[in-house]
Design a protein that fits this description.
The protein has about 325 residues and is mostly helical. It is globular. About 70% of the residues lie in helices and about 0% in strands. The longest helix has 30 residues, at about 5-30. Helix 2 (about 35-60) packs antiparallel against helix 8 and helix 2 (about 35-60) crosses helix 9. The protein starts with a helix and ends in a 37-residue tail after the last helix. It has one domain.
């Protein structure tokens, strides 16, 4: 195994671990009295500030980014910021374990965005989408309980938008280091979620509310984003998304221990079906080449030339 590939796999697994903590900490913060918009605004803004200060004092060269790359980070950040708002609004209506299971459909949405970038689905991909659809029905239709359709739709929307931002950032990461992409993506996310909180929520958390879940979520956001983009840089968005399935195990385990959540038998069947659907990615064939003369929807994110005096090399 090459060093770069090993680094990418380790980073993707680390990202999965931290992302698995996020819904549990987010749900705990909401239970303690934070509104969903307050949670996403605080964790995103604080994580962006923390990373900016670290780069400013320890390695200012990471502040440089080429103009088209900056545009890509802004686009990805806006998209993911909107997805984050949907995610925490859904989390207020769903359990952390069920919410994360639905959110784990994002690798299939990644495949859809790659299709739009010129990579066509195989028969196996169609089969996996069918399995995933069955899994969603099992996960969201619990006997004797009411299915929160709005919560389900919000979480699926969050997964759809999260998947969309991955191939965008992957293109930027061809020419920029992970800390730089992480910083500008988080800043763009903050520009979306903080005004949304100020305009539509404005419920200032009381000083008597326990803040440790929000502070933990801030640290988890900071570390997971950095590891996520490091993984995408070295092994690509699809493989990083696949390894990100490990977050399911973390979320379900902690939800059982910490939040005392339980899944019924049909939901466990749905979870296993979803896992099978996602794990089948490893058997997918190499994507077909694009037809000559046609470009993917993200081709514009490549710079014509990187200046030779840039403090980091294009494929660092």
């Amino acid at each position: 195994m090459k060093k770069g590939q090993s680094t990418g796999i380790s980073a993707a697994l680390a990202s999965a671990f931290f992302l698995g903590l996020a819904p549990v900490l987010g749900k705990q913060a909401i239970v303690f009295g934070f509104s969903p918009m307050a949670v996403v605004a605080l964790r995103t803004g604080l994580a962006a500030t923390l990373l900016f200060l670290i780069i400013l004092f320890y390695n200012k060269s990471y502040l440089y980014i080429y103009s088209v790359g900056l545009a890509g980070c802004i686009l990805a950040g806006v998209i993911n910021g909107l997805g984050s708002l949907l995610y925490y609004m859904a989390l207020a209506r769903l359990s952390a374990s069920v919410g994360q299971l639905l959110y784990s459909l994002y690798p299939l949405f990644v495949a859809l965005w790659l299709l739009l970038d010129g990579q066509f689905p195989t028969r196996l991909t169609v089969f996996r989408i069918l399995l995933a659809s069955i899994a969603v029905l099992l996960l969201t239709n619990t006997p004797g309980s009411h299915t929160d359709l709005i919560g389900v739709l919000l979480m699926l929307g969050a997964a759809f938008l999260y998947a969309m931002h991955l191939p965008i950032n992957q293109r930027v990461l061809y020419e920029a280091p992970a800390p730089t992409v992480t910083l500008y993506t988080l800043i763009a996310m903050s520009v979306v979620v903080i005004p949304a909180f100020l305009l539509f929520d404005r419920i200032i958390p009381s000083t008597s509310i326990t803040w440790w879940p929000v502070m933990g979520l801030t640290l988890v956001t900071f570390l997971s984003r950095l590891a996520l983009f490091m993984g995408i840089k070295h092994i690509g968005g699809m493989q990083t998304a696949l390894l990100g399935l490990g977050e399911l195990l973390i979320t379900i385990t902690l939800s059982h221990i910490w939040l005392h959540e339980r899944l019924v038998f049909s939901q466990w069947i749905g979870a296993m079906t979803l896992g099978i659907s996602l794990l089948l990615v490893r058997y997918e064939k190499t994507p077909r080449e694009r037809r000559r003369g046609k470009e993917g929807w993200l081709n514009w994110l490549r710079p014509a030339e990187v200046p030779p005096d840039v403090p980091w090399t294009p494929h660092e």
